[in-house]
Fold this sequence. Notes:
Elements: E1 6-7, E2 10-11, H1 13-20, H2 29-47, E3 52-53, H3 55-62, H4 66-74, E4 80-81, E5 85-87, H5 88-98, E6 105-110, H6 114-120, H7 123-127, E7 130-137, E8 146-147, E9 150-154, H8 158-164, E10 169-172, H9 176-188, E11 193-196, E12 209-212, H10 215-223, H11 229-239
Parallel strand pairs: 6-7, 6-10, 7-9, 10-11, 11-12
Antiparallel strand pairs: 1-2, 3-5, 4-5, 8-9
Amino acid sequence: MITSKKTNGNHDQADEAxxxxxxxxxxxxxxxxxxxxxxxxxAYMLQSGTTTVSSSELAAQIGGTAAQIRRxxxxxxEFGKQGKxxxxxxxxxxxxxxxxxxxxxxxxxxxxxxxxxALAHYDGFRERGFYVVAAFDRDPHKFSQRIKGVEVYAxxxxxxxxxxxxxxxxxxxxxxxSAQDVADRLVAAGVRAILNYADIIVQVPANVRVRHIxxxxxxQSMTYYLVANKGKAKVRRERxx
Length: 241
């Protein structure tokens, strides 16, 4: 927070200038999370030759509503004209710029077991600007090995390598019992964005963003709908559960 001295009870020019500045509206995280879905759909449209799209057409592609799309985009400016829709290529480029994915990001992969190996071989990361440039493991037999051209380092070298390679994003692919320690090490090394595949919620400082990827929880949330749970819920209520 900026403060300035007062003279004779009046704000000085610096205070007056600050008072004139607009208050930046905080953008809900759920809005940010929807932007990549918009970008993916727009990219598919562009590849198929579509040059313009309305909010209703885009909503039909992603399963949302036109009002939601217009509201989400309004946080960042005006991108289309009423009655004419959006220019697909322009809107795609604008969303990429908003998400800072119009550049390359260096990524550290921690854990080179079965999951880590699969992630290292996934071309989708590189195709979208995320370059896994270093992998880490505790198994001495894996040190200096390469996974699809990426060298595997000892965990003791994590901070050193992250600094050398200017890594800003980390992927955790270790067992749950090791995940928090790995997250702490990544944060201490300067990583400010973490994708966590361990089936545990890791705790990070407020200035670090973490996304938890838990396929098991997702599967469990769907199996609820595979049986007649309405009847189960009614019975439980009647029994006082």
